[in-house]
Automatic annotation (TrEMBL):
Residues 196-310 form the Fe2OG dioxygenase domain. It comes from Multifurca ochricompacta. Belongs to the iron/ascorbate-dependent oxidoreductase family. This is Clavaminate synthase-like protein. Keywords: Iron, Metal-binding, Oxidoreductase. One of its GO terms (molecular function) is oxidoreductase activity.
Amino acid sequence: MEAGAGEEGKGAWADVRSDQTFRIPLIDFSKYRYAASLSEKRKTADEIVSGFKEVGFIYLEGHGIPSSTVDNVFKKSAEFFHLPSSVKDKLAWEDPRSNRGYVKIGRERVTQSTDVAEIARLRNKAPDTKESMEIGRDWDETWKNRWPLESDAPGFKQTMLSFFKTCHELHTIVMRSIAVGLDLDEMYFEDKINEQYHNLRLLSYPSIKTSFLQKEGQARAGAHSDYGTLTLLFQDGVGGLEVENPHTRHFQPAKPMPGTIVVNAGDLLARWSNDVLRSTLHRVVAPRRENSNTEGMTPARQSIAFFCNPNGGANISCLPNCHWPGNEAKYAPVTTEEYIVGRLSATYN
């Protein structure tokens, strides 16, 4: 998969539209971060917005987060998931309004369905084979993070709090680039995303029989879109993430690329932009391998997802230049909290 640097217009993106030539663009974000002028920023901003228009996903390199920082977060995450169930279960996720705490294997079933009974049926038939730890802003007066004791997980809390701040800062800069690419003022989103109403999700996928993952409806994480503005996804080297080609509806691998972050647009950014920017379906399955042995084992996998959201009370209504005669606003206004809590309420048992 290669970059679409400097390419403009629909013709430049025609090759992403077949499964044989599908690609997620690789974008060097340092060109935006260190640009000396708005016109220089515009070049990278156009690449980012074009990627979200056509694919909904990009790879970001030159993002400014050191590999040593990411490696340490993976290390502390692995240490947490290796704790006994008796320790982790005391931190169990309890409330969609909070969206904090430990989620054991089988509790979540991500899907595009919003029907509670249908989600329950899917969960019983084919639950997601993963466990996670959900972390929000730590200073929230209403909802508190559920931290393990320092003696159980040394350095875990401080590592995650620092990483939360780092990811928020990157989210802010990427949203500035999206504003520029949409012909808005660069700071348009600034006061709509500054409350850090985000979710840091640590994910652990246990080793599992490949044949189990290949059963109908079964996956490490079912096909879904994300809820917020952007997701910053940090992958290990195992793979298994697949992205739906929006033009063919077939899933294609999003292979790990060292040093990059996979960034995708979420539902609220799609609603904000009147679907000018795509919130693309994706899933986690057994990685595709040549001559794979279906009776073999799919190795354990780790990933770290930072779900970026607008402020909880932000009014998500069509951006001023994303509707015009013949392309009217598709969605009724909704607040971030209303939308995300609604989706989470249906996802968990």
